[in-house]
C-alpha cells in the first residue's frame, strides 16, 4: 500500500477502535437474537405472507432467503424512474435460485435538480436522514434474511446505507440503474446557462437546452453527487462489479441486476459464504470511498456523506483524513465539470474497472476488502459484457481516451484536488480539480449575503462587477438545512469570465458538480449561534473585509486586525423559514451536528 494511505487507514482504525467494536458487537447480537421468520408468531407470518400468494408456500417452507427490497422508485426523478419494473423482475430472479423477494418499503427520493434555488432544497440534506429512518422501518419486520437497496441519487444512497448499516448482520447489495444516454453536452448546456444569466438567452432557449441535456431515464450524465455515489459503491464492493455506468434498458443492465439478486441470495448465514453488510463496510472500505472520490474528482457533498456512512458503521473519518489522502491520491479521471466528457464517455474509455485496476496496482486502494461481487476488490477491475448471450467479465485494457482516463503513472494531477481550509473564519473544504491553478488563491473584498437569490439580484444590478469574495451565510444545517447554492454557478462563472477574481465562501453547500469558480464551502462552525449564543466566525464578516481563500496554503482568513475581529458582534440570524413543510423539520435542524461529522440529526440523536 501507498504509505500515506496506510497511515491514514491506521489513524482511522485507531480512532474508531471503541466505536467500531461497539458496532460489531451490536450486529453480532442482532444476528444471534434476530427475530426472524422461524421465531415469528403464526399471525405475524400470515400478515407478512398475505400479499404474496405466488411465494407463500416457499416462504412457509423457509428453505431459502427472503430478500427485502427497499426501493427509491418514483417517476419524477429520472434516475429512479428506471426502477418501476425492478421488484417484479427481481421476484422472478429470486425464484430461480430458490429464494423469495418482497418490497419491504419505499424511501423518498427528491431531485436536487428540480428544487435548486427554491424552498424545497432546504429539505434536501435532511431527506438523507428521512431515508435512513425509512430504511430502518422497512427492514424492521424481521422477515428478511438479506436485502437489495434500489437507489442512486444524491441523498438516497447515503441514506439507504446509514439505515441499512443498523441491520449490518444481513447481507445486502446496492443495485444501480445507470446513466441516461448522452444528450446536449454539458459544455453547451453551461454556455447557455451563462448566456441566460446575462440576458442573452431567453427562457425558451434555456428550457430547450436543459431538456436537451436532461432528456430520458437514468442519472444525469455529469459527474455530480449521484454518479459519485455509484463510483463509491464500486470501490467499496457493494455493487455487482462494473454495474455503475451501464445504461438503462440494455440486456447488460438487466443481467447485472439479475446477477445481483442471485448473488445476495447466496450470501446469507445459512450458507458457507456469509457476507454481512456491516463486515463489508469496514475502515478500509471507507478509505476506498474517499480515495475513489479524490482520484476521480467527485462530489464535495461526500465530505458530508462519507463521514455519516462511516459513523453508522462505528467508524470515524474526519476532514483532516480527506486532506491527507488528497495530497497522496493522483487525479486520473476528468469527467464534467472537471473535463469535457460525460459519464458515458468515461465508461467507454474504461470506466470504473480501469480506475480500480490502476488504483489497486499503485497501492491507493485496499484490494483486500470483503465485497459482494467477488473474493476481493480485484473482481471490480474487470468489465462486464454479454458473451454468448450470458453475463461475463473481461480484463480491461489501456485507457480508451487519455483525455478522460490516465494511468496513475501519468495522472492529470499528482493529487486529488480537494483541500481543507482553516483560519479565523473557521474550517471549510474546497474542490480545485476543475479550478485553474492561478485561481487557487483569491484575495478580494467581501460582499455579504444571507440568501442566494439576493446574490443573483446584486449580480443583475452590476454590483458584483469587480474582484469579490461573495459570502453567503446562514445556510448551514441548523439554520436552514444546508441547501446547495448551485444557482450561483452561472453568475459567478460570468464574473470570472469577465476577468474578475471571484470566490464563494459559505456555510452551505455548493453543487456536487462544483466547477471552475473557487468555492470554500461547508464552513464550520456555521453562522447560526448555538443556544449559548455563540455563532461561527463567518457571522463576523462585514462588507468590504479583505478575505483570503488560499487552497495552496490551506487557509481561509478575514484579513482584519485581531482585536477588532475578536470583539465583533455576530450577525443577526434571519427567522426560521416556514412553508413547503420546512417547519416540520425544525427538530432535525435543532438536533443536527456540524458538517464535518456529516450534518446528521439521526446519528447525533443516536449518540453515534
TrEMBL record:
PROSITE patterns: ILVD_EDD_1, ILVD_EDD_2. Keywords: 4Fe-4S, Carbohydrate metabolism, Gluconate utilization, Iron, Iron-sulfur, Lyase, Metal-binding. It catalyses: 6-phospho-D-gluconate = 2-dehydro-3-deoxy-6-phospho-D-gluconate + H2O. It comes from Sphingomonas oligophenolica. Residues 66-378 form the Dihydroxy-acid/6-phosphogluconate dehydratase N-terminal domain. The gene is edd. This is Phosphogluconate dehydratase. One of its GO terms (cellular component) is cytosol. HAMAP family: Edd.
